[in-house]
Specification:
The protein has twelve helices and no strands. With 245 residues, it is mostly helical. It has one domain: Orthogonal Bundle (Tetracycline Repressor, domain 2). The two termini are 30 Å apart. The N terminus is likely disordered. This is Prenyltransferase. It comes from Trinickia dabaoshanensis. It is a multi-pass membrane protein.
Length: 245
């Protein structure tokens, strides 16, 4: 197998999983971790990194599953998608989806509290619900928001076995933002003849860490605004190499 072929397959897998958006997940996990401690002290790095990787796996699995369900639509409307263009085979995409979810659960079993793994079952159900029905039922945008909310819940439960009121506030703030983002993205898809002149959806995706930054800045210190901005900049930089929308 040539290096070029390997890079092509790797690139297709990364695009399938929308890895450019992963900084948004990492910021969600970091926010939930800090808010789970009553004193707001820095959590231990190891479990937070483990959870960031675990939730990244769920995100990647969800994105891959999304393209599997949307294949017929993508072949007509979004032929650049990895499966639709033939850059990655159906079997490989299915295997990547299952492996991502399995790895996510495996990591959660190593977390301080098993409650996170139980909550992740709800996360996978919500992800599947959105992916399976979102083309036919606009109300599934609430499932998309719910999936992002559950990132905070899973993190908090895995770290402490409970969900504090502050975690709930951050989760609801982000879920509300994702609800607005999903509505904007759906409006663009349904008015293809009048696409946004400016990349609104990619920028809204990249701005998600700033929502966490604002919440943490209000609760702790304005320094968190810079952390949120850094997360957004990282996501936007990644989108220039791998599409995140």
């Amino acid at each position: 197998m040539s290096t070029l072929a390997l890079n092509s397959r790797l690139g297709a897998a990364l695009a399938l999983c929308r890895v450019s958006n992963l900084p948004t997940v990492w910021m969600n996990v970091l926010t939930a971790a800090f808010l789970s401690d009553p004193a707001g002290s820095a959590p231990y790095a190891a479990p937070v990194l483990l959870l960031a990787f675990s939730l990244s796996c769920f995100y990647c699995g969800g994105m891959a599953q999304n393209d599997l369900y949307d294949l017929d639509h993508d072949r007509v409307h979004q032929p650049f998608r990895p499966i639709a263009v033939g850059a990655i085979a159906l079997g490989a995409a299915r295997a990547l989806t299952l492996a991502s979810f399995a790895m996510g659960f495996a990591c959660l079993l190593l977390a301080p509290h098993r409650a996170g793994a139980y909550a992740a079952v709800a996360l996978v159900i919500v992800i599947w619900t959105y992916n399976r029905f979102h083309k036919r039922h606009p109300s599934t945008m609430f499932a998309m928001a719910g999936a992002r909310l559950l990132v905070y819940i899973v993190t908090a439960l895995a770290l402490t076995g409970r969900v504090s009121a502050r975690v709930e506030v951050a989760a609801l703030a982000q879920a509300s933002y994702v609800l607005a983002l999903t509505a904007v993205a759906r409006a663009e898809r349904h008015t293809a003849a009048q696409r946004y002149r400016w990349p609104v959806v990619p920028w809204m995706l990249a701005a998600m860490p700033m929502v966490d930054g604002v919440v943490l800045a209000v609760l702790f210190t304005p320094v968190w605004l810079f952390v949120g901005a850094a997360g957004s900049a990282l996501a936007r930089a990644g989108q220039r190499r791998i599409r995140g929308d």
